[in-house]
Amino acid sequence: MALSFNPQELPVIGVDDHLPRVQHERLLPEALRARFAQPPAWQPEIVAEQRFTQRQPTHASVLVPLVQRDDLMVLLTQRTDHLTDHPGQISFPGGRAELTDTDATATALREAQEEIGLEPRFVDVLGSMPTYTTGTGFIVTPVVALIDPGFTVTADPFEVAEVFEVPLSFLMNPAMHRRHAVDVTGATGVTSVRREFFSMPWEGVGANGQPRRYFVWGATAAMLRNLYGFLAA
Q1: Residue 13 in domain
Q2: pTM higher than 0.90, yes or no?
Q3: Tell me, what CATH number does 212's domain have?
Q4: Gap between the Cα atoms of 53 and 133, Å rounded
Q5: In a domain, 77, yes or no
């Protein structure tokens, strides 16, 4: 669904630099494994967006892939511009559940293999985060996993325009979490609703080797924000 606004042109109404970043020792693989094995008492900050379609809710899963390099890196994709849902946006590998999937984790693993060629043998699932419901009606389960760096990316060109990585430490620093707000048409198509969202712009290097700005926002940024809350608790 095409947006009625350009999120990159909206003003920043707040930055959460008053909050502590997640300490380095909490971002190590074994610390993450321990955190998911014994979760703290916490509540996700954001669980749903304002609905702007009347489509029936659909269950989906995404894989939150933490690639084990010198420091953990979050693998993200940029969706192709012609897709019906969330075209051109930065997202985790994932998609809607199918009847053959045994659970949310199976959906995430299947979708990651279909979208970017990530074979399950390289994936060490740590656990799942609470569901996040998008404005387009997807009830998304984020499945967090450590990824062996020996994998090879083979992206589906129909769905994926680019695959890239962002340091987990950058995304777990709330000083990089920017707040935005915009008035959009609600699901009824009549009333206007206030939509608030986070962005986490990353100044990286594109596939051509040139500097590039990756604008992480919306549902992807919200799920990363919830991961921050889970790890900081």
Answers
A1: yes
A2: yes
A3: 3.90.79.10
A4: 12
A5: yes
Query: Domain limits at 145?
Result: 7-232
Query: Does any domain span residue 208?
Result: yes
Helix (H) or strand (E) holding 231: helix 218-232
Structure tokens at 125: 């699932």
State the DSSP string of 115-170.
HH---GGGEEEEEEPPPEE-TTSEEEEEEEEEE-TT------TTTEEEEEEEEHHH
Place of tokens 């290097």: 205
Q: Note the helical H segments in 3-128.
A: 29-37, 104-116
Expressed in angstroms, the distance from the first to the final Cα of the chain is 35
> What six digits make up the tokens of 195?
């939509």
Per-residue tens of pLDDT for the chain, all 233 residues: 556 788 899 999 999 999 999 999 999 999 999 999 999 999 999 999 877 677 789 999 999 999 999 999 999 999 886 555 555 789 999 999 999 999 999 999 999 999 999 999 999 999 999 999 998 899 999 999 999 999 999 999 888 989 999 999 999 999 999 999 988 765 555 567 788 899 999 999 887 888 999 999 999 999 999 999 999 99
State the total domains in the chain.
Answer: 1
Q: Output DSSP code: residue 17.
A: T
Does 82 reside within a domain? yes
